[in-house]
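Aim 2 progress update. The chain analyzed this quarter is reproduced below.
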Amino acid sequence: MSYIMDLRKLVWHRTLIMPCACVIIGDGKGNVLLQHRTDNNLWGYHGGSIEIDESVEEALRREIREELNLELDSIEFFKIVSGKEAHYTYPNGDDVSPIDIVYVCHHFHGDLRLDPNEVKEVKWFNLKTLPKEMTLANANVIKDYFSKYSFCE
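Predicted structure tokens:
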């Protein structure tokens, strides 16, 4: 996240437009793998900000490799989330207007290993067991995912 951190040195906590590559990792059986984040203590889908000259797909694969030590075998574009619903202020006061470019992945591999600086834990959830501790935007996207995929009833 060096680009965003460099900008923060110039603008402090002022609102930044932040393009993010994100993914909902599913098992194809009605469960999604969510992460418990260290920065805001909330659960959500995976991803992070896109660096300069990095494609969305490159950023997505890099973020998942860094945070979870997983490789995404195939990804499918799902939706873009932006606007007032996505606006967020981090506990440290950093304000962002993110543009989440969200993909879905049902095929991945690797030995799950978490980056303790970013992820406290990961856990599989289904529609009925989703945690309450999520941002509104993440919760809505995950519910949209369960609505779209027929195996998730």
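The two ends are 36 Å apart (CA to CA). The CA atoms of residues 67 and 125 lie 19 Å apart. These observations will guide the mutagenesis experiments scheduled for the next reporting period.
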